[in-house]
Design a protein that fits this description.
alpha/beta, Rossmann fold, Ubiquitin-like (UB roll), 2 domains, three-stranded mixed sheet, binds guanosine-5'-triphosphate, binds magnesium ion
Length: 360
Amino acid sequence: MQIGLVGLQYSGKTTLFNTIAGIENPDMQTAKEEATIEVVKVPDARLDKLTELFIPKKTVFATIEVFDTPGLKMSDDGKVKITSQFLNNVKNNDALFYVVRQFTDDSVAHPMNTVNSVRDIEFLETEFLFHDLAFLESRIAKLNKEIMKMKDDKLKRELPLIEKCFAHVETEQPLRNLHLTEDELKMLSGYQLLTLKPLLIGINFDENSIENVGETLNKIRESLPNKNETIIPFYGKIEYELSTMDDEDRNTFMADYGIKESALTKILSSAYEKLGLQSFFTVGEDECRAWTIKKNYTAQDSAGVIHTDFYNKFIRAEVVHYDDFIAQGSFSKCKDAGVWRLEGKQYIVVDGDILNIRHS
Ligand SMILES: Nc1nc2c(ncn2[C@@H]2O[C@H](COP(=O)(O)OP(=O)(O)OP(=O)(O)O)[C@@H](O)[C@H]2O)c(=O)[nH]1
Ligand SMILES: [Mg+2]
């Protein structure tokens, strides 16, 4: 899974990126145009526990790729330029994390001179909508032209979909709110439609406003056209400092500040939720491992994530849920208790299942 950190200049993207990627002596130069990418381990207390029990040679956490993109710049006409470089940076991102500045700090410039998170959220959304509208409009013109020239069924099927998307964006609604089928999404997958990507809005607070965060978030939500956006508060500067401490100090300081969950934990749980993702585990003396799958994946689909051969040669899956395994303490006790099962191809895997795939 790829998550792109995007936003206006100086909103705190790189600071957050360094925090979640655990980069201790960062190079804060922002002259680069390409995204900086880090592979980040997805923390999972259940995998820590399984590692304690199995003492495997290797523990493999699920990972995500985080993209730190250069801030979007304002041009002289007061517009943000969506450059081809920006589009290229976020091309394959599964979700965008929009970093919005809420911290006040006179030493850090704001591209629009004042701190106003609602304005910044609407600003970016509008620019993304404009971008998609222009793309869809030119695609419709092109499709009409090509359909006139040659009778191509694929193009003919695409046209009404693009028209439907255009009509939706024209009402200033992002494409992620349009209910599209898997097939329709597949047809759009080659295009750079920014409002189609799932969006998480991260509000970067300063440490002095922790007490009022709830109230401020409510106000922000109330002022947005879409009330059901996912909004995640975090504390850019202080969380970076916390990330450089050892576990004990970090926990003490987090408690002192009243920070319950780290930015990384919040981003990951929201992203998993938004993208409909979950984890299953494989365990053993060699390796304990967390795997990321979609929520509706069957046992056979999940086997395919481990290895395509496991998909093709799938016979059955041995399944115990993590909670049952921890309650019972061993596989044999799970068998005695009737919570160890053999499941077929169509079994829908549940978050926290421990699987062992039997294959030919
Ligand atoms: N006071 C305060 N300063 C912050 C916070 N987050 C980031 N900054 C500062 O704001 C400045 C810009 O932060 P960056 O993380 O580089 O912002 P950015 O979004 O990556 O900037 P560009 O890549 O240039 O768009 C730096 O000086 C940071 O130290 C915060 O939560 N509080
Ligand atoms: Mg940056």
